[in-house]
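Dear colleague,

Thank you for sharing your sequence with our group. We've completed the structure prediction you requested, and as agreed, I am returning the results in plain text so they can be pasted directly into your records. Please verify that the sequence below matches your submission; if there's any discrepancy, let me know and we will rerun it promptly.
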Amino acid sequence: MRMTCVLTLAFVSLVAAASSAQTKFSGTQQCAKNDPEYTVPVGDRADHVMVLAKDKCTWTQAEIGGVQVKDEDDTIVSDVSAKGSRDRGIGVMVLTSGDKAFIQFQGTGAIKDNKPVTGEGTWSFTGGTGKAKGIKGKGTYKGKFNPDGTATFDIEGDYQLMAATTSK
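Please find the predicted C-alpha cells below.
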C-alpha cells in the first residue's frame, strides 16, 4: 500500500511538472513587403502562378524563455490563383540575445484584385540555437495585408524549452 502511494505521488508530480513546462506564446508581427518576390505562371490557367518570396518581420510583445523576440526572416512558397493561395514556409526568428528559433508554417490566403488580403494557418517550432535549442511548440497565425504589400499577423500558441544537458 505504501509503495502504491509513493508511486502515485511520483506520477502526479511528473504530470504536474510536464504540464507546467508548456508556456503560452503570443505576439504581433509587422511584415515588410516581400523582397525579393519571384512569380512564375503555371500555364494551366491565366490566373494560376507559383510565388517564391522572402519577407522581413519585426515582433512586438513576444518572448521565449524571458527573452524578447526581435525579428524574423521568412521564406515562402505560394500556389496562387485569382481567389486564394496555399502557402508554406520556413521562418528564422531572432531573439534579442542573438539566439534563433526555427519555424515551419502552412496556411491559406484570400486574394482580391490580384493582391493578398488575409492569411491564416498553423506553425510549429522545429528547433533553434542557444536558449531556443531543442524548442518544441505549435500554434496558429492570422493576419491582414495592406494595399502596399505590408502585413500584420497575430500569432499564438504554446512552446516548451528542452532542459539544458551537460556532457562530460
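Summary note from our side: The helical segments are 2-20.

Kind regards,
the structure core
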